[in-house]
Input
Amino acid sequence: MRFASEFREGRLAQGLIAKIERSSHTPVNFMEFCGSHTVAIFRYGIRQVLPKTVTTLSGPGCPICVTANIDLDKAIALARSPNVITASFGDVLRVPGSYTSLQAVRAEGADVRVIYSAMDAIKIAKDNPHKQVVLLGIGFETTAPTIASSILQAEEEDLTNFLVLSWHKLSPPAMQALLNSGEVALDGLICPGHVSVITGSQAWEFIARDYQIPCVVSGFEPLDILQCIDMLVTQVEEGEARVEIAYSRGVQRGGNMVAQQLMNKVFEPCPAEWRGMGTIPASGLKLREEYSRFDAEQVFDIDPGPTREPKGCICGDVLRGVSTPLECPLFGKTCTPENPVGACMVSSEGSCFTYYLCGGKND
Amino acid sequence: MTDAILLAHGSGGKLAHQLIEETILSDISNPLLARMDDSAVIDFGGRLAFTTDSYVVNPIFFPGGDIGKLAVCGTTNDLAMSGADPAYLSLAFIIEEGFPLSDLKRVLRSIRDASCEAGVQIITGDTKVVNRGCADKLYINTAGIGKIPPGVGISGANIVPGDKIILSGPIGDHGIAIMSKREGLRFTTRLVSDCAPLSGMVAEMIATGADIHALRDPTRGGLATTLNELSKQSQVKIEIVEELIPVRDEVLGACEMLGFDPLYVANEGKLVAFVSPRDARQVLDAMRRHPYGAEAQVIGEVEEAATPSVVMKTVLGASRLIDMLVGDLLPRIC
Amino acid sequence: MCVAIPALIESIDGHLAEVEIGGITRQANLQLCPQAKVGDYVIIHTGYAINILDQEEARETLKLLEAITRLAVEEEG
Output
């Protein structure tokens, strides 16, 4: 039993779809916060099989898409510095900053390496003692503890050439800022499954309590997402608003305490700039003072140059759920996956990329 | 648009196609080249198929093969995809200074064995050596020619609505086998590359007398990219069914781990055939009788359409548009 | 926002484990999941185990989905 393919079974999916069709009467708008949910929804064609009463909306939960240009520009400036090896998760390479991308500066000769794990960056640091290795710390609460663990490992092994540029962000504050803006009317939230493995479903309780919005934590297989939508529909029809878990094999209310402790040991919350959402208080993570020797922001004097945003790009509106990619004047014309203008078209989880691949072409 | 060559220009996906169409074909063009089939078909009083490929795989020795075997199979397969009987190859080496002689001998033995199996002779060649650091160990170029039997008309432009699509076996083996040896990804697997010469199987498929319209081997960019190329060449809609596409558990596991889609992972010993519906069964049977087609499956069919597209029916019964590979296959975390 | 998948722990050496997913084996870091043991399924994200998968809950969920499907078939028939 692999605990993956069983949750893709077509026959069980048909059962869930039939149940949703029977129970859904009220038109509802559910948001999937997480970019990986957007990908899964499009990959399996979930929108096509849901009744007309249920619509889903993509949220800002794509760490690549929400990384602001100033942060990308800093990484690019560092990558160009002599003696620096930049270790990056693959998703980041093609994202355009104000002027260029890591992929392009690699073609110019910068030492930029794709890693799969923070452990790979530690190995690169050990293999290259005379270079500074900068790990681009991207991701939400799922990834931040892994980066924290690598910093603690670097401390234990006395590595002096391992640094992290922290772009980590926290999900609940972003969701709260979105709800406070009043720009989108939501009837339910499909909560991110792997973020919740770390934080626990408790992280979303304030949304049910203070905003009266049903929340269900979902996994990423088609049966998980359909079960989540079924549970949200049931809550709406019964006039309830609480937090439930549709990914019970992975998520508990309290989350992973060890991971939370490691994350809090190394990082502390700070204000962070989110593309399209401005600066949100206590929504980012920075390294604590006692770990400042691993903090690339502290160790390097980074001058990224003036930031600029691409003209006409409405990535910000797309991330907040205010516009769909189809409403962007650049979508499918000057902004395509091969020649992206904005982050939402580059990231394999970005709404625009997903729409483009799955037929939202605007010819 | 970039002004330097990026790695993605070589991945077989969209940027690679753009490079060919916008940069290369704008300077070098003629009707034979413009057809963009896997090999060019020339009439010398009898038709000849002619093709070339360069091989830069890293690592050069991998589970299931090496750069030598690839250099023979890749080029003879391109000839076979035009229905040709591969006959002769040229062989050119670019070798980095310092490359061990024992490794070169190992590659040569692979070339000898693969040529023997494919039934081709290497009749001309060249060797160059460049300074250390100016090439990555060994690069090989092979060009091949083969005769096309009279009456055989196989081309990516001949696909028509109603054609059945037959895939010769599980996808993704080669790409994942290579990746398992790449620095930085390091996973162990029993998977080996599917690198194989397919001309024998193709000859048996043709010998059934079936109406085969097109053949293609989905290499870099994977099955998805190949189907997109073909849908454009013939201006048709291609519909495949996800549950019918064979993929080994190990490939699925590695793809899930790295965030890849098996549809975009390279193959080196598979083909996809477009066959008239009344002959599909006999072609499928012929393929299954051959060792390289034992797991062949019908995976979809061709439909009429105003604009060419490739669509896949998912496990939920919904339809999803499948595009070419964009960029390079990079492992993703999110 | 997270590609993470279930894998079976085959062996443990300190804080590293050999894990298996569909025939592929790879090293995983157990620092975030120190209580994991050989024979457990863990959820792996970028090479780190982020939680032990609750196999009993997985079975219960599938049972629930089977019940939903049976009901749907009855209601249709």
Observations:
- Chain B touches chain A at residues 1-2, 4-8, 14-15, 18, 184-185, 243, 252, 256, 258-259, 314-323, 326-327, 330-334 (CB under 8 Å).
- Chain B is about 30% helix and 25% strand.
- The mean pLDDT of chain B is 90.
- The longest helix of chain B spans residues 101-118.
